[in-house]
Input
Amino acid sequence: MKGRWDGGWLRRARRCRSPNFNPRPPATEISLALIHSISLPPGQYGGDGVERLFTNRLDWDAHPYFQTIRGMEVSAHFFVRRDGDLIQFVSCDDRAWHAGTSVWRARPACNDYSIGIELEGIEGSTFEDRQYAALAGLLADLEDHYPIHAVAGHEHVAPGRKCDPGPGFDWIRLADLTNWIQDPSNGGLMARSADA
Ligand SMILES: [Zn+2]
Output
C-alpha cells in the first residue's frame, strides 16, 4: 500500500504547483506549522483568486483590491477552502513564501522551517467546521512525516505587522481536535511531547 506522502507532497491533497518557492537551508528541521487566512477579494469565498495569486496568474486589474497586491510573488504549502477542500502548492520539503519577516521562539525567518497553511477566510471572522476538521487531519499527516512540534498563527510570528488568522480563529477548538495544548508563552499550540 502506498504511503500518504509522495516526497513532500500529500497524496490526498489536490496539487496546484506554484513557482514561488526555493530550497530550505541545508539540514533544516521542519518544526512549525504556521496558520494564515486569506481570501481574494477579501471576504469573497469560492473563487479561484488565491490559486491564481499563488501561481502568478492573478489579473491585477480584475478587482480594485488586487492593485494593492500587484506583483506579489507569494505562496503557501496548503490552502484549506471553506468546504474543507485541501490544495497543495509547494512541496513541504521546499520553502514556500508566506511568513515574510517573522520570529518564532527567538528564531527568525519562519519560512525556512515552517509549513504554511492558508485558511480561506478573513481576519476577525470565523471559520467553518469543515476547515477545523481538515486542518486537524492535515496536522496529523504533517506530524507523521515531519518533526512538527508547534502550531502558530501569522499574528504570533509577526506581531504588529500581521493579524491573521485573527480573533475569529478558535485555538482551543483546534487543541481539542488535535490533542495538542495551548502554548502560553508564544501563542498557538504545542505538541504534548514538546514539554516532556
Ligand atoms: Zn498570513
About this structure: The chain has a mean pLDDT of 95. The radius of gyration is 16 Å.
